[in-house]
Amino acid sequence: MTAKTFTFDEDLTVNRLGYGTMQLPGAGVWGPSKDPENAVDVMTAVLNSDVDFIDTADAYGPLFANQYLKQALQAYQGSHKMIATKVGFTRQGPDVWTPLGNPAYLRQQIEQNLFSLGLDYIDLMQLHRIDANYSLADQLGVLADMQREGKIKHVGLSQVSVKEIEAAQEIVPIVSVQNRYNLIERTDEVVLKYAEQHHLAFIPWFPLATGALAKQSDGPLQKIAKAHHAVPSQIALAWLLQRSDVILPIPGTANLSHFFSNTAASSITLSEDEFKQLTALGSTDAV
């Protein structure tokens, strides 16, 4: 039976279907939203829903996504929501992402995340990318130091190999990995398997990539969606949720109706045959 929740520690269990803030800033994840008020409204809807795992990053905007989340958090009166964020990227313009693992810069980013989110500590701080120009020990050492200072609760990684996860575990306990993975792109199956074996949260970024499959009116994805009175994106999320109990999808959107559509995917149960048909559509080849 598919698990509805994932447990990080004795005090932190979340519903597996989360939300990612990457779509809130402007085009190319750069600059403010064209409609900042709507961005805050979307975050308010997320906070008032059953979603209790929210993924963001200081690089989104930069900082604009965090600011919209902060505004919504300031008015929120409900129970604790797990906030995950990331450090390790610099931004020079739309769709431009440059890794920087300078320890002093990473510490500054963590402080900026705390300030821009209005939080005293971060539930999950992820290294957005490993920078080959600095040792892994230096990069993760900063996160370990700030974990001891009480500013970080858990540490995760993004877009890494099993070997890199194992090396990281020698420096600081790792609880999650965020790699590109979806219905049709599954290059990191070996990383998912490792996550399952070691109870690491596997957070697939770009979880809704269905590409040309969604446009095939008579293809398996469309047929299965019609059978469930759903849309292809909901079926793609339902497949991820059934693929593994350690997968925590974080679909992002700046559209309220799309958000509610995404959350409805958690109530879809695929038959064994439907799951097999969808699994057969994917590729483990590098993209």
UniProtKB/TrEMBL annotation:
Which superkingdom, per the lineage?
A: Bacteria
Answer whether the UniProt record assigns the keyword Oxidoreductase to this protein: yes
Keyword Oxidoreductase: yes or no? yes
Q: What does the record give as the organism's lineage?
A: Bacteria, Bacillati, Bacillota, Bacilli, Lactobacillales
**UniProt keyword annotations, A-Z:** Oxidoreductase
Any Pfam family from its record, for instance, is Aldo_ket_red
Q: Which GO terms describe its cellular component?
A: cytoplasm
Every NADP-dependent oxidoreductase domain range: 16-281
The identity of this protein, by name, is: Oxidoreductase
Q: Name one GO molecular function term.
A: oxidoreductase activity
